[in-house]
Design brief:
The complex is a heterodimer. In chain A, the strands form five sheets. Chain A has a six-stranded antiparallel beta sheet with strand order 7-6-11-10-9-8. In chain A, helix 21 links the parallel strand 22 and strand 23. In chain A, 53% of the residues lie in helices and 22% in strands. The two termini of chain B are 34 Å apart. The chains are: A alpha+beta, B alpha/beta. At the A-B interface, helix 17, helix 18, helix 19, helix 20 and strand 22 of A face helix 1, helix 4, helix 5 and helix 7 of B.
């Protein structure tokens, strides 16, 4: 294993190295290809260039010869004409007789004629001294007539009898020309009498000479001053550097103007090569002019131009193909390089993956929480996982090389040696073999072993890979599970029994309860009804199931049910309502408690309702109410009667008695002082009695209430209250119409009761009683600032007092609201709607 | 002689009253009526100088009798003679047009005096009746008045103080302690934003609680 990994690592490194090398080779190869192509190209180019140079030289030679020839031709062109001219009599005449105007005129005409015919620049005639006497340009601004040219060599030679040709820049005209001179000899005279000259411009020949732009043609004098050139700026410059002495000589000769005949900068390099100031190379040839010793025709050709003549066509023709070739080569090199790189990368990645997987496998093998081991064909342990060691408590060194069976219990070992191993070596496979391992500590663990074998190429097993699963815990757990299952079974049986019992109980309750019980789903369909329901509506449970209220009951009843059901569903809380149902013996009132039923997810699944028949209770309640009403009514009537009796009858009688006793007292005042005194005592007694009777009557029922109405009665009772209790009492009222007697009585009694309570319990300092009417509702409010009370903590009698007030309120169809907070006083509010048209 | 019409449903009472009236020697009962309707008829028949009328009577009650007699004989003074002591009756009676108001209980002492007074065109009221009337007038006349903040008992004390009664007198009149009267007094002064009894009197007059 270790070896294998090393090999892998090595081969990985190797491959990396190989990858680099391959890339380098590719690079070198492409460089070599490029180099050889370049060398070939260069050699080819050099040979081309060489032949071009040779060709150029040859061309230059040819050219020089041509130029020389045409120059020679040009220079000899006017020799004959000038000779002819010199032989003409008229010219001789004009020289011999210079004063003869006609002769001079004739000479001029001849000169004009020649000049015209020969297309020369000028023809002129000089006398012996060198003065020009006649000329074809005599009429021009730069006329030669009168000028003296005796410094010119051509004159000097001619005057000595020699015809001459001469190249110079004209001193008068400033134009270059070839001067052809000839002496004019008159017979009889030993020396020439004058000289005739034809001057031809060199410019036509200069133009003729020069054609190609990349060549320079020069004609130089012996001092190397350039006289003719196809490069205008070089004219009158020198091709060599001039010494001062030479410069002086040239200046004196007046041959080339006034100088300064600068050097053009051409320097010779060897026989054939010259370099200018800028370092440009030239191929140079020269040839002497015939008959003009020292005069040269020089031919310069730019080396760059020659190269161009080679490279230009080459580039033009071969350039694109070479470029295409280069691109092609480049692309293919790049492509191949890429392909090679990709291939290398892929190999590297694959190797990396293999390495990682190998690593993972190793890590897995050692760190997986499973007991892994491998044995060789002898049954000896080759490797074990860390977990294997952990479980059995050994060090790796203690187990490698030992037989696996040494770690088994006796019985397992036998089983292994006799059955499992032989079979395994044959099949290369075994699964879930129950073994028992012995730990180093001596503990025994149960395992299940599964193994496969690695086979060599030949087919025989080499080593195994075995997984052992510790099932000690599992075994224990299985036992526990079994136990738990038994427990569970027992428990569920118990539960079932309980459920059965509960169900029976609930069923009994449902069956025997006098209440109607039913379950509906959310859509209002009955799921279950109890026997009371069945009995009441003469329908069996099965018939009712799935039906809605509208299927069973008349519309108005069903609507009523549905409305209440809907309320439970929308509010999600229980709701209590009285529902009225027609039955065979009349309309029954049911008190229905309805509440939502939830499913296991906590959502409302339906409604359960329990309806109790409260018809009898209702009836009793109603009777009780009526009874209590009538009792109160009767009580009130009796009180009224007694009060009236007391007040009107007894009171009146006492009053009459009082009058009589007063009369008596008055009568006896003078006669019997003693009797009069007794009568006075009687008066006082009767007064007290009358007060007592009146008081009694008024407590029973104040006459004000009956004769003057509620407002006056309340006014009286509040001021009476204040008088008796010293609790400040305000009474406010709005205009109130006459009220029905029972209503006024109720209001009065409620006020009285409230005031009584305040006097007894409230410890108030102020009471406000207000009576008003708004929108047909009579409103009586009694507020105190006393200690208040908690409604729950009222004693029975106090509670009864409140109940009595409520009773009175409800008997007249009103409503009593009592609010009280400890230490914040009490507010009793009686509200009743009145019909103002009813007579009071 | 002042001609008196006597209307009361109790014959014994009526007899007692007649005796009181006639024994004065300066007035005579020219007619008696046992109920309201009869009283009106007798008034038409006999044209009395003064009508003495009970409030509680069968058929037409006393208050209605006053109203009708006022309509027919605006100048006929009517004296109410009743068992009732409650101020409410006094107010109603005076509102209806009665000139005097006395209880039957006080008849032996006051009846003749009262008849004479009303006959002379004066109002005759017992102290209690005068007070009840004053308070009612003061409270009820104006829509909203500073008196609204006072309770009935406070109004009573205020009136008495304005009339010049001493604390002792007031305490005796209402069966309360002198100290309580003083408490009422300071409470009233505070509520009405007054400083002393003089201001208090002025206030009572301005608000019609007493006559100046």
């Amino acid at each position: 294993m270790t070896f294998k990994v090393k090999r892998l690592i090595f081969s990985g490194a190797f491959s990396k190295l190989a990858g680099m090398k391959l890339r380098l080779i590719l690079l070198v190869l492409s460089l070599l290809a490029f180099l050889s192509a370049s060398t070939g190209g260069f050699l080819y180019y050099s040979s081309l260039k060489k032949s071009a140079l040779e060709e150029a030289e040859r061309q230059a030679q040819e050219r020089l010869q041509t130029i020389q020839k045409s120059f020679s031709a040009f220079l000899s062109e006017n020799i004959k004409p000038v000779r002819s001219l010199a032989g003409l009599d008229f010219l001789q005449h004009s020289l011999i007789r210079p004063d003869e105007a006609a002769a001079l005129e004739k000479a001029n005409l001849i000169l004009d004629h020649f000049n015209r015919t020969l297309e020369t620049e000028v023809c002129y005639l000089m006398d012996r001294r060198g003065d020009t006497i006649a000329s074809s340009n005599r009429l021009a601004a730069d006329s030669f007539v009168g000028e003296n040219f005796n410094f010119r060599p051509y004159f000097q030679r001619a005057v000595q009898g020699q015809p001459a040709t001469y190249l110079a820049l004209g001193t008068t005209s400033g134009r270059r020309g070839a001067y052809y001179s000839h002496p004019i000899v008159v017979e009889g005279r030993p020396e020439p009498v004058g000289v005739v000259v034809i001057k031809a411009s060199v410019e036509p020949i200069e133009r003729e000479l020069v054609s190609a732009s990349d060549e320079i043609v020069l004609v130089t004098d012996p001092h190397s001053v350039i006289f003719i050139s196809n490069r205008r700026e070089w004219l009158y410059h020198s091709i060599q550097e001039l010494s001062d002495e030479r410069r002086d000589r040239i200046a004196r000769s007046l041959q080339f103007g006034e100088g300064p005949w600068n050097w053009v900068g051409i320097r010779m390099e060897g026989e054939r090569h010259a370099v200018d100031r800028h370092g440009r190379g030239y191929l140079i040839h020269r040839i002497e002019l015939d008959h003009y010793p020292g005069w040269n025709v020089i031919h310069l050709r730019s080396l760059a131009a020659i190269s161009r003549t080679v490279s230009d066509p080459l580039i033009r023709i071969a350039g694109p193909s070479i470029l295409a070739l280069c691109v092609l080569i480049g692309v293919s090199v790049f492509f191949l390089y890429r392909k090679a790189s990709v291939d290398i990368l892929r190999r590297q990645a694959a190797e990396q993956a293999l390495r990682e997987s190998e690593e993972r496998y190793r890590s897995l093998y050692h760190h997986t929480p499973a007991m892994l081991h491998s044995i060789d064909t002898n049954g000896r342990l080759v490797s074990v996982s860390d977990y294997w060691l952990d479980i059995l408590g050994y060090e790796r060194a203690e187990v490698i090389g030992r037989k696996l069976t040494e770690f088994l219990t006796e019985s397992s070992r036998r089983y292994a040696e006799e059955t499992v191993l032989p079979e395994f070596f044959e099949t290369g496979f075994c699964k879930d073999i129950p073994y028992q391992f012995v730990k180093k500590s001596g503990d025994i663990i149960d395992i299940l072993l599964s193994a496969i074998s690695d086979r060599a190429m030949a087919g025989g097993p080499v080593r195994s890979l075995a997984v052992s699963i510790d099932v000690t815990e599992r075994k224990r757990a299985e036992e526990a599970l079994q136990h738990a299952q038994q427990e569970l079974r027992r428990y569920s049986q118990d539960l079932e029994r309980q459920v059965r019992k509960r169900t029976q109980e609930v069923t009994s309750i449902l069956k025997y309860t006098p209440a109607v019980v039913y379950l509906k789903d959310k859509e209002g369909r009955y799921n279950l009804v109890n026997s009371r329901f069945e009995e009441l509506f003469a329908m069996r449970n099965e018939e009712v199931q799935g039906q809605t209220d509208h299927d069973i009951f008349p519309n108005e009843i069903a609507d009523q049910f549905c409305q209440n059901d809907q309320r439970v569903l929308s509010d999600s809380c229980s709701y209590q309502a009285e529902e009225r149902i027609s039955q065979s013996d009349g309309v029954h009132t049911y008190l229905s408690v309805k509440f939502p039923v939830y499913d296991e997810t906590g959502k409302i699944s339906g409604i359960c309702g329990i309806s109790t028949d409260i018809t009898a209770v209702k009836k009793a309640q109603e009777q009780l109410r009526r009874l209590s009403g009538s009792i109160m009514d009767r009580q009130e009537k009796e009180r009224k009667a007694i009060a009236r009796e007391l007040h009107d009858e007894l009171g009146q009688l006492l009053t009459a008695l009082r009058m009589d006793s007063a009369w008596l007292r008055h009568r006896l005042k003078d006669t019997d002082a003693h009797a009069s005194e007794r009568a006075l005592t009687m008066d006082t007694l009767i007064d007290k009695t009358i007060d007592g009777v009146r008081d009694m009557a008024i407590r029973l029922r104040p006459g004000v209430l009956d004769t003057l109405g509620l407002v006056d009665a309340l006014e009286w009772v509040t001021s009476d209250f204040e008088k008796r209790t010293s609790i400040t009492c305000f009474f406010n009222h709005r205009p109130v119409p006459n009220l029905e007697d029972t209503l006024a009585t109720a209001a009065y009694r409620i006020t009285q009761e409230a005031l009584t309570n305040i006097a007894r319990h409230a410890r108030a300092t102020r009471v406000d009683v207000s009576l008003g009417i708004e929108d047909g509702v009579l409103s009586l409010i009694v507020i105190d600032d006393g200690c208040g009370f908690s409604l729950r903590e009222l004693t029975e009698s106090e509670g009864l007092g409140l109940a009595g007030m409520r009773e009175r309120a409800s008997l007249v169809g009103g409503f009593l609201d009592v609010q009280s907070q400890e230490r914040k006083g009490t507010r009793v509010h009686f509200k009743v709607s009145i019909n103002p048209e009813r007579p009071g | 002689m002042i001609k008196v019409l006597l209307a009361d449903d109790h014959s014994i009472v009526r007899a007692g009253l007649r005796r009181i009236i006639e024994e004065s020697g300066e007035m005579e009962v020219i007619a008696e009526a046992a109920d309201g309707r009869e009283a009106i008829r007798k008034a038409h028949e006999h044209v009395p100088d003064v009508a003495v009328v009970d409030i509680s009577m069968p058929n037409v009650d006393g208050l209605e009798v006053i109203r009708q007699l006022r309509d027919d004989y605006p100048k006929l003074p009517i004296l109410i003679l009743t068992m009732h002591e409650e101020g409410q009756y006094v107010v109603r009676a005076v509102e209806a047009g009665a000139m005097g108001y006395i209880t039957k209980q006080s008849a032996p002492e006051q009846l003749v005096k009262a008849i004479r007074k009303v006959y002379d065109g004066h109002r005759y009221l017992t102290d209690e009746a005068a007070e009840a009337l004053a308070l009612r007038v003061a409270k009820g006349a104006h829509g909203r008045s500073p008196l609204d903040t006072l309770s009935m008992r406070e109004l009573q004390v205020l009136r008495r103080l304005a009339l010049g009664n001493t604390n002792r007198e007031i305490a005796r009149a209402y069966h309360i302690s002198i100290k309580t009267v003083d408490t009422y007094r300071s409470r009233i002064l505070k509520k009405l934003d007054l400083r002393n009894n003089a201001e208090l009197s002025r206030f009572a007059i301005q608000n019609g609680l007493i006559e100046s």
